């Protein structure tokens, strides 16, 4: 199986990139799966929703070529992995703009004139790894973790029918936890396709994994 790992951080030497690489190593360790990286900063993806995107939303014109390229990457993948630093209790702007533009009407979902919604990404497994400087107590005390999962896991991916398999926050990165997060990411990657194992009779086998 194949995973697209989307990284949103301008510094290739950052913990965010280290976590993404470690997750990929975990996937590759079995020798059965492949990965592809989409480094939004290095590739210069334009996150600004523009008139061409608006025209495509209303199905008046084809989607822009850079959006089609990103959608094709996801279409090739069985799993989508987003690894990102938490900025102001949410995605970085470039990653949010990637979602705004790529998860478009007519591809991620269908919105009919009568308001009927069709979810089009039901085949896609999603793994979310947010990396934050605050500790877990801060997230729990203010409800930041719940708010982000409501906004992202439910508001974006459930809206499109995609299954969120992993939803993790790797926190307190300014303390002693940073090195352990790289180890955790490798374990998460090793379990990325655990739920996809099927028996010879076609029944789905659910293997517990970190989530």
Give me a quick take on this structure.
With 211 residues, the protein is an alpha/beta fold. Helix content is 39%, strand content 19%.
What does this structure look like?
This protein is an alpha/beta fold and 211 residues long. Helices cover 39% and strands 19% of the residues. It has 8 helices and 7 strands. The protein has helices at residues 15-28, 40-43, 51-57, 65-75, 93-102, 136-142, 144-160, 178-190, and strands at residues 2-7, 34-39, 79-85, 109-111, 117-119, 125-131, 163-170. It has a 5-stranded parallel sheet with strand order 2-1-3-6-7, with helices on both faces. The protein has a two-stranded antiparallel ribbon with strand order 4-5. The chain starts with a strand and ends in a 21-residue tail after the last helix.
Main beta sheet strand tally, sense and closure: 5 strands, parallel
Low-confidence stretches: 198-211
Query: What coarse outline follows from CA principal-axis ratios?
Result: globular
| Strand order in the sheet with the most strands | 2-1-3-6-7
Annotation, overall tally of beta strands: 7
Q: Counting H and I runs of at least 4 residues, what is the number of helices?
A: 8
Give the topology string: H per helix, E per strand.
EHEHHHEHEEEHHEH
Structural class: alpha/beta
Beta-strand content: 15-25%
| Distance from first to last alpha carbon | 19 Å
- Estimated radius of gyration: 17 Å
